[in-house]
């Protein structure tokens, strides 16, 4: 069956007519995948904020590497945002407390007014207005109109949304902000004192293509190397050397090393799935009625595509 006859048998909008796999890919229909290479991955010694070579590197308890200046600026910026959000939340709570006090005062005044009307009906109390009626005076005409309680309640219950006084308003309720800054990458709470200075051992010139090396085995550190950072000294060594040399004795360079003092540094991306990094990027591209890229038939049809289909303008 030819292309024209197949489409004529499945006439309809572009989201439901018969299309080949090549046509759907050409029109970006459905989910589009893209394989990422090593050039799209972060190196193990790069800052997670600036994505450049980390200067004066520090790491978080989760093993995220940052430049000291970049992460400190980020923490200070978060603290300023938290201070502003906390101030807005406190102002909101004060407004709520003021409204509650005003409501309590109005209720007490209403109770006193009702008590006076019930017990001093024959007397005169000029300080308390009669809640049973509201007097509205027209200064121009000199006329006075009285609104009863029923009319007042009827006016309050009236749902005339076109009147300015009856326009509904949604109160913005602010939640209490978290007072602790968070790690930009992991999203977990982060404090300045938790940052650990990382000391990378520089590789010699004869170690081609390597910037750093493991100070124990003298092997080059790459994106595929599993690296651990010792809190007590800040040295970055490969995980194999830690398991074989440091962990059995629990000591390194005169420092006592406990398992809780070891941070596994996040590995860099190598472009392979085995590295643990995401190497596939996905994007959903819905195509059909209402998407702006539908197939419009008739006089308002858009320009034809590579396969003869017409795209909406």
From TrEMBL:
Gene Ontology molecular-function annotations: ubiquitin protein ligase activity
Coarse class of the protein's main subcellular location: nucleus
Superkingdom per UniProt: Eukaryota
One GO CC term on file: nucleus
Domain Nitric oxide synthase-interacting protein zinc-finger: 18-79
Subcellular localization, as worded in the UniProt entry: Nucleus
UniProt entry tagged with the keyword Lipid metabolism: no
Keywords, ordered alphabetically: Nucleus
Family label: Belongs to the NOSIP family.
Name this polypeptide is given: Nitric oxide synthase-interacting protein zinc-finger domain-containing protein
Organism: Cymbomonas tetramitiformis
Lineage: Eukaryota, Viridiplantae, Chlorophyta, Pyramimonadophyceae, Pyramimonadales
